[in-house]
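Backbones bend. We report:
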Amino acid sequence: MLWQVNSDAVKKEIEAIWRWHVINKETGETNRHDDGQVGCDFPLTAGSIIESFGFLYTKTNDKVWLERAKLLANYFWKLRNKETNLIAERPNAGAERFDGSAFATDISGPYCHSLLAAYRLTTENLFKEQAVAYLDAYNKYGFDKETGKFWGALKLDGKPIPGPRLPASPEPEQFGNAEQYAQYEPRGHLDLWEPYILGSQFPLETAQCYAMAYQISNDPNMLTGAKRFADWIEKTPANTCETDISWYSEYSKTYGREGTYAEKYGRAISFFIDMYVMTDDEKYLQSARKFADEVLEKLYVNGFFKGHPAKPYYEAIDGVGNLLYAMVALDQTLRGDARGFNSDSW
């Protein structure tokens, strides 16, 4: 849409991303900060850059942008554990920080979505193949058959990082303090309804990626991963406190008991619509309706959707837009126009 308004401005912005965020033009190492220095090479951030380069390639037909997108993707691929295909959450952080030596769901969620989106844009198989490989690895090493849950983080050799988690630090956070940073490590099982919008836990996004990867690749392992998440989400109400000890435990034991955020409801509904479209199994459509009914009960007030059951007001950051997209998609599905996989709702 912005391209239609001012394509020159969009092109300049993407060119600036290459200049300031890709800090090693030979290896593809990135920094989420725009100072042009070595910094935080999170795949989560690099994924958005890969998408932007892929987008510009489709608009200009200049293959340099496709090659740059592939360069960034291959930076992480070359750093993977070749036995497991797992990559670190932030490779250049070093072993002294957990994200420098552990795989978490910001990779299987946002990063894999960016790779799949880049494939859809460019039809370059490299993006699809890498996304499926990461998702396959998490499905293989991250699923706990005894509980039916996924582990929150894995060592790169595939071993789960056990709990319990660390409580919130009593001291004010100091930037770069690895000991304090450890409180954010998702030890033990993944928490489906964690309240933080940007961290190391993206369970619903990962569920959506398994469904999307199956729809694109027809790989049966992707469907297995999607079904495992579907079973877990279905039996875990949105007001469940899954983690007794965490930096956000006060929320989970109070406001979290009333339900979850609009975006999480929206993602759950969208995911179950996708599952219904893929499998034609009515139970997934019923799950989508169940979450939608809860939304109407807890978030719909005086003709308006608020962002959380415990909030008396609307706040855009709570993901109401995502929820509305999902509710419209559900209405279309119930009317017989089942589409699913609308990437605009991501």
